[in-house]
Write a structure and sequence with these properties.
Layout (H helix, E strand, L loop, with lengths): L1 E6 L2 E3 L5 E9 L1 E4 L1 E8 L2 E9 L4 E3 L7 E6 L4 E6 L8 E12 L4 E5 L3 E5 L2
Parallel strand pairs: 2-12
Antiparallel strand pairs: 1-3, 3-9, 4-10, 5-6, 5-10, 6-7, 8-9, 10-11, 10-12
């Protein structure tokens, strides 16, 4: 069993900041990639991802405003979001697409999502 839990969402004014956290727990050996997606009505997109070595990739909409990081000792990833805009309103999901389980197999897991609302 592997559990992915997000936290840190909320209501923020335009221009504000939020920090999302994702923690993975359970029976596994290693998490290669950790990623943040967001889902707005009719639209789902990759926001940012980071591999085990810390190499990152961002959506154009996130570049320069968001920073993804991870702590391999805690099996956690973070998304620091600055200069938030109305268009950033969405449910944000943590995805761990390549978790190597103790059995040796690889699985894809998602968290339950955390709501981010940017509104004045």
């Amino acid at each position: 069993q592997v559990h992915v839990v997000e936290s840190g969402g909320g209501l923020v004014q335009p221009g504000g900041s939020l920090r999302l956290s994702c923690t993975v727990s359970g029976d596994f050996q290693i998490i290669y990639t950790m990623a943040w997606y967001r889902q707005a009505p009719g639209k789902r997109e990759l926001v940012a991802r980071i591999n085990y070595e810390g190499v990152t990739k961002y959506a154009p909409s996130a570049k320069g405003r968001f920073t993804i990081s991870r702590d391999n000792t805690k099996n956690a990833a973070y998304l620091q979001m600055n200069s938030l805009e109305l268009e950033d309103t969405a449910v944000y999901y943590c995805n761990v697409p390549r978790v190597v389980l103790n059995s040796g197999s690889t699985m894809d897991y998602w968290g339950q999502g955390t709501q981010v609302t940017v509104s004045s």
